[in-house]
Design goal:
The chain is an alpha/beta fold. It has five helices and five strands, in the order βαβαβαβαβα. The protein has one domain: Rossmann fold, CATH 3.40.50.2300. Strand 3, helix 3 and strand 4 form a beta-alpha-beta unit.
Length: 121
């Protein structure tokens, strides 16, 4: 079973993401902000990390930076979910090694297809 870390400060969206991923057979861990997400990513191996971009304590780019700089986690694929639609933030994410950058509202079928693709490698 593939293990996914979901990092999202919106409790309702976090619950929706949990349901979507669990329905597809993923094992889910959840963090309510970037700081908690970074700590969890450093304590356990995940097959995929899905993170919001705009969060308190540590934003999504800080999560990406910490995960990609850590030898143990640097190869973990990351999907960034965001309502921020600037080309600059998308380019910055891709430059930092993000596997995908999806704009909210996310289409569940697209998110799961991408997650399955990234975790099958």
């Amino acid at each position: 079973m593939k293990k996914v870390l979901l990092i999202e400060d919106d409790a309702t969206l976090l619950k929706v993401l949990e349901i979507i991923f669990k329905q597809q057979g993923f094992d889910i861990a959840m963090a309510k902000d970037g700081k908690e997400g970074i700590a969890m990513a450093e304590q356990q191996k995940y097959d995929l990390i899905v993170t919001d971009l705009m969060m308190p304590y540590a934003n999504g780019l800080e999560v990406v930076d910490r995960v990609k700089r850590n030898f143990e986690t640097k190869d973990t694929p990351i999907i960034v979910l965001t309502a921020v639609t600037t080309q600059a933030s998308e380019l910055e994410s891709v430059k930092m090694g993000v596997a995908a950058y999806l704009r909210k509202p996310v289409i569940p079928k697209e998110l799961i297809a991408l997650a399955l693709q990234l975790t099958s490698k």
